[in-house]
Amino acid sequence: MLKRTLFFSNPYHLSLKDCQLVIQSKDELVTKTVPVEDVGFLVLDHPQISFSMKLVEQLNANNVAMVFCDSSHMPSSMLLNLESHSLQSELFRAQISASEPLKKNLWKQTIEAKITNQAQHLEKQGQKAHELRAYARSVKSGDIENREGLAARVYWSRLVGNGFIRDRYGDPPNHLLNYGYILLRSAVARALVGSGLLPTLGIHHHNKYNAFCLADDIMEPYRPFVDQLAMRVYGDYPDELFLTKEMKAEMLGLMAGDVWIDGSKRPLMVALSQTTASLSRCFSGEGRKIVYPEFN
């Protein structure tokens, strides 16, 4: 079932009644309701939003990710359910005890999928991508030759232009890419938790200050889907240096966008659950391949 992403940028009070999310405006006498079981994400982007703890309890029970934005209107933190899988402790142990060869092989699969999707994206935009195809075929265990970095140089120069630098604080469309990647990261973290895995323990990323290393790993092949959406929104608002409400609303459509995975078309949010479930099987020894989407 496709879950809804709800974005709040005005002062609302959010509460619970009869398993319904009750949305009450603080400025007007307007009240709306949404079944909690239909919600996948809540994005809260206003300092005067309030909510009841009973609602938070019910959101957790339904594995809903609550994403909080900071004063610059960028997603900055998130609440996740810490008890969402019946075999969680067993899967934690399998994840913690994963061997280095296994993690290096999983990272190889991840980078192959990422570069292949980048190549597909470029070709869809009418650009050549033969170098990326070659890089994808030559990724070694653990990507010790950094094919990911080599592919990135070619990818960004052809997708945006030779003068473009992918940087958190760089020129547009970096602002759209940043926003989209943060949303994607939260969606991956939610899917990992739903599959009984710890988002903190990565297969490649291992920064001690990063609480979502595994999410940063698994989101890599999904980045081109963000890139495609960000470039389309950028084309609609080429003169906007800062994110507007309309631009954010379009970027939130990422979760419901269709992708091809394992031979079927699925919403990205559903595909993430397939990917994280396959990763869980790899850790437990029931599988050897992560199922990633194919850019089409």
Automatic annotation (TrEMBL):
Q: Which Pfam families does the protein's record reference? A: Cas_Cas1
Q: Which GO terms describe its biological process?
A: defense response to virus; maintenance of CRISPR repeat elements
Q: Please state the Enzyme Commission number of this protein.
A: 3.1.-.-
Task: Please give the Gene Ontology molecular function terms for this protein.
Answer: DNA binding; DNA endonuclease activity; hydrolase activity; metal ion binding
Q: Which residues bind Mn(2+)?
A: E148, H205, E220
| Function text | CRISPR (clustered regularly interspaced short palindromic repeat), is an adaptive immune system that provides protection against mobile genetic elements (viruses, transposable elements and conjugative plasmids). CRISPR clusters contain spacers, sequences complementary to antecedent mobile elements, and target invading nucleic acids. CRISPR clusters are transcribed and processed into CRISPR RNA (crRNA). Acts as a dsDNA endonuclease. Involved in the integration of spacer DNA into the CRISPR cassette.
The record ties this protein, via NCBIfam families, to: cas1, cas1_NMENI
What family is this protein classified in? Belongs to the CRISPR-associated endonuclease Cas1 family.
> What's the protein here called?
CRISPR-associated endonuclease Cas1
- In its UniProt entry, the species of origin is given as Gaoshiqia sediminis
